[in-house]
Amino acid sequence: MPAVSGLDRDQRAKARRACVEAALLGLNNISEVHYTQDSRRWDGIGSRRVAAKGKFPHHSDCSSFATWCLWNGLNLGFDIDDVVNGLDWSAGYTGTLLQNGKQVKRVENVRQGDLVLYGDEWPGSHVAIVVGRQDGVPMVVSHGSEEGPFLIRYDYRSDVMQFRRYI
Amino acid sequence: MNDDYVDDDPEYETEEDDDAVIAGLTAVDPRNVPPDQGDAGKESN
């Protein structure tokens, strides 16, 4: 079965690295990545803020931040269509994130660039991106408030809904 | 919602992460994180 993104193994590794680098760039510029739910949340992609050039979104919410990270790895890296939200890289929320990609059932199979969706019911209420493991625990970069984004363990909330893969 | 799982997909079997990129980073204590404010949702796209 081909990968969700259609990329081969080496390409996926490169895409994952780019996603993680984007997320960590946001983390390293925490005071300049403001939280908003208004239309400015898509400025990261709309203004083509390329993480490899040190550019990051100045306004974002959880889903647009996670999507921006994946856009860096998939669209900028390999010209992949919007397999993340299915909306031409111009919109999306937890509901469209749940409608796209494929689910990772077991936590031991979670990889960098996968998303963690949170919430008790459809369409979810929060999302964060996996950037690796510390002591075997998947760690995410989560941008859920003005104080973020944060590096934090994936299960910092009790309402983990599912893991999803887009790469 | 797509219910296919990637866990048993051989395409992904040999993948390994490079955790070194976050090895030196200090994570936030979950007890110190302010409540997530939620997602903008469909209406705000």
The total count of strands of chain B amounts to 0
Secondary-structure element string of chain A: HEHEHHEEEEEE
**Rg over alpha carbons of chain A:** 14 Å
Q: What is the CATH topology assignment of chain A?
A: endopeptidase fold (from Nostoc punctiforme)
In CATH terms, what is the architecture of chain A?
Answer: Alpha-Beta Complex
- Class by alpha and beta content of chain B: little secondary structure
| Secondary-structure class of chain A | alpha+beta
Strand content of the residues of chain B, in percent?
under 5%
The largest interface is:
A-B, 64 and 36 residues
Strand order within the widest beta sheet of chain A: 3-8-4-5-6-7
Short descriptors:
heterodimer; A: 167 residues; alpha+beta; endopeptidase fold (from Nostoc punctiforme); six-stranded antiparallel sheet; two-stranded parallel sheet; 4 helices; B: 45 residues; little secondary structure; 0% helix; flat
Describe how the helices and strands are arranged.
The complex is a heterodimer of chains A (167) and B (45).
Chain A: H1 9-28, E1 34-35, H2 43-46, E2 59-60, H3 62-78, H4 94-99, E3 102-104, E4 115-118, E5 126-134, E6 137-142, E7 150-153, E8 160-165
Parallel strand pairs in A: 1-2
Antiparallel strand pairs in A: 3-8, 4-5, 4-8, 5-6, 6-7
Helix pairs in contact in A: 1-3
Chain B: no helix or strand
